[in-house]
Design goal:
Blueprint: H1 7-11, E1 19-20, H2 23-26, E2 34-36, H3 39-46, H4 67-75, H5 79-87, H6 93-99, H7 106-109, H8 121-135, E3 150-154, H9 158-169, E4 173-177, H10 186-189, H11 198-209, E5 214-216, H12 227-232, E6 238-241, E7 247-248, E8 261-263, H13 264-273, E9 291-295, H14 299-310, E10 315-319, H15 331-340, E11 343-345, E12 348-354, E13 363-374, E14 380-384, E15 390-393, E16 396-399, E17 403-404, H16 408-412, E18 437-439, H17 442-445, H18 450-480
Amino acid sequence: MPNSLKPSARMKIARQHPLEQEPNVRNRNFEEVSFGFNEDLVRVEVERCLECKNPICIDGCPVHIDIRSFVQLIYEKNYLEAARKIKEACYLPAVTGRVCPQENQCEKLCILGKKHLPVSIGKLERFVADYEQSVGGGAQFDVLDRREEKVGIVGSGPSGLLCAVELAKRGYRVTIFEALHAAGGVLRYGIPEFRLPKAILDQEIENVKKLGVEIVTNFIIGRTATVDELMNEFGFDALFLGTGAGSPNFLNVPGENLPGVYSASEFLTRVNFMKGYRFPEYDTPVKLGKRVAVFGGGDTALDAVRTALRLGPEHAYLMYRRSKKEMPAREEEVRHALEEGVELHELTSPLRFISKDGKWVNAVECVRMQLGEPGPDGRRKPVEIPGSNFILEVDMAIIAIGQSPNPILQATTPGLAMSKKGTVVVDENGKTSREGIFAGGDLSRGGATVILAMQDGQRAAAAIHTYLTEKATKRASVRSN
């Protein structure tokens, strides 16, 4: 049932805005900020789709969701089938519908967006995913004939989960090994409750288990068992390594080791995963004080400063060495942060952290910056303005300038090629230097988006399937001879 409205009429329909908590309410709670679309908003938004014969929006999706088809199914009010269509390519739509940077991917290529605002693809995806969860009618996929081969997935983050799903649908016996006591990786410990509720994540993981995927927690690769032990003693025919980038990067400035200076990963893990925001119900208190400063401009920095703000300080500063325009964080997250009361200090870089007594950080010395010539990445380099130093009083500082892979994997896996930055070297399909071992996500990229990690898991699953199928064919040929 195609849309009867002419394209000219569709273009006149304004892009719909999701329902959200009021800023002065949400900045003091950890409930989800955005409620997404209700059905009335969805009915209006789908009218805007031009139903392009060549839907290039799909080219912008790293996992190639059939966007035109699922939007058409929404138009027909067939919400469960729309969710199923999405899950053919991405099995965790309630996650990607919330955290995927659609504005830089599928929506960026939307033809409607050439002259008007693009179709809100991400919010439509979230709507049907939430609808599916609410009615309990999750899409069930037929698993192909069961295969004898076992595949191990190390890490239960986005790359590992999607790799596991794609392999399970192909009939493989799949086991995920997770270092922490609950699955989800960065989806659980890195993204705040107000952006991705744990209940939503838990349901998505349950859907993965329904495909026959086994998840083993409290299993630290390199300690509980090594990669070689998984292959040789546990009997896995192939492995996918998706252990992420759990080691934080630091500024390397004086005073950075003072008490009260945290990495964003430690801070977010303590507050989100260990429920520090519900102290004393959960015994993980977080001492903030009156002034908190977060250093960085990516999504993790925004998550950290918005999390800190909700714990009650008088001031929550976001310090970034470039301007707001250059911030790599999602536009929506920046807007939310500023609405909530985060104080942005653009073109500012820290020089040293200061303590009056050596027992806790009290201040940070910063310097003003200006943008110079573009660097190799095309971004203008920040340059110090001489004599612009100033002191900012703080009671806590949080460093959010990226992360690197944990070196334990490199130290315990002989022959696994690594880059100078500590990432695992892979080809375009995720194949490593070790036969039968594949990798992806932040472990090979060194820090990227959730959806790009899922893309890696998807590609690696296809490559693992090819690898194991070819091995099985060779074995059969040897036996026949």
